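This is your field. Have a critical look at the following sequence-structure pair:

***
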Amino acid sequence: MPTTELYMALVHYPVTNKNGETIASAVTNLDLHDMARSCKTYGVRRLFVITPLEDQKRLVERIAGHWTKGVGGRHNPDRKEALSLIHLCHDMEGAVAAAEEDLGHRPMVVVTTARASEQALSHGSLRAMISGGQSCLLVFGTAWGLAEPLMLSADRILEPVRGAAEYNHLSVRSAAAILLDRLVGEPLEGQDI
């Protein structure tokens, strides 16, 4: 039973390419596996995978189905449990509606980005909101990040993950794991959150 009212979305459209153009990106096996496993570990209720492309929807269904209904799930029940969190959606509105139906109310939609923003919500502030009972749909973009209209439609923008170096180009699955630990993981000893 999840301990939070936290949902995640992995968006493949609308996202941008390196030239800033809005595109649909390809689904990757690694993102599905790693993000589902992180979601299960941190008590996320559902991982919405968002794509309008029919061939990519079939790919998600094939990968998840292998682990939830096929031989993969019989071979590795832990992976079956994690990948059962995947819920395929055509668009962001579908993900919000599915979370709202599950909760009985609309969750706060929080988008992530690697770009700094003056309006960004800190990790500590969002952690406090979640631990205080605020339901949340945490949205991650693939490719070069979420397209501007989707960013603007969110309730909040989360501050970026920053490492110890100037380089800042984490994989989406790595950023998701780091953020989950910061938002709902156990605090480090002596850490005041």
In short: Helices lie at 29-41, 54-68, 71-75, 77-83, 92-103, 123-131, 148-153, 172-184. The longest strand covers residues 6-11.
